[in-house]
Here is the input.
Amino acid sequence: MHRRSVSSDPQRHGLAPPAFALSAIPNQSGKTVLIFCGTNTANLPLAASICTRLALAGAAVFLCCREKQAGIQHIITLRERVPGAQANLIVFDAADARQAGQTCAMIVERLERVDLVVAVGMEKVEVLQMAMARLIPVLSKLGGEGARVVLVSEGTGSDVEFDGMRLSPPEATCLVMAGLNDRFATKGVHANAVIQKRESNAISRFLFGLDDDQRSLAALYAATAADVGGKCIVPFGAVSDSFPVDKAIADLLWDWCERQTCE
Here is the structure.
């Protein structure tokens, strides 16, 4: 499968196209957003930053993560930073199929509508095995035209092996994105993938000194910029090119995930 190279050019360290900045996030008032965090605790600050920025833009946000105390602290900090924000924590363990299923069922029951789902670090093999079937009911609550799913891969999970194939977390993420678009595009829902390569994470944190707000730019661009659907955004590379995926493999991966969940 085709892989992208990562550019270390400091002139391109902005994690979204030059015209897009934190100040360019469109008004999100009236929208309900779910930000799911995978099992790696290192992903939580980025997820929380995305949550805060969308709350600043007016969205009602729900941070869904497994670390209850850390999640509470992030919500407290968010509310201090954004007085009057509609921000809440949902305890969600992506590696526990039963708990995740119950949580998703609760979300479906309580929320009338969801406008955006952002999943950060949902790329480990045990998460992929359950995420599709568990999150499908939630995705069915997505609003009409303009609703989105954004999958953010940090590139740190183990490879996914199925049917004699081995996929890296970024490859699996893009294939899941393709599967989501295939199943939900007719309902006006589009999925984007953001591939935060490990090299770019290290560069952004230590060489360029970017904080989590700045690192969240690519995900925020994928979530809110106009006319961005079915794209794979690769910071430090071609940030808005389509990522070539094999539809047949995407279908195989999707079916495999559903079989693993049901077994």
The chain is about 40% helix and 15% strand. Residues 1-15, 199-209, 236-241 have pLDDT under 50 and may be disordered.
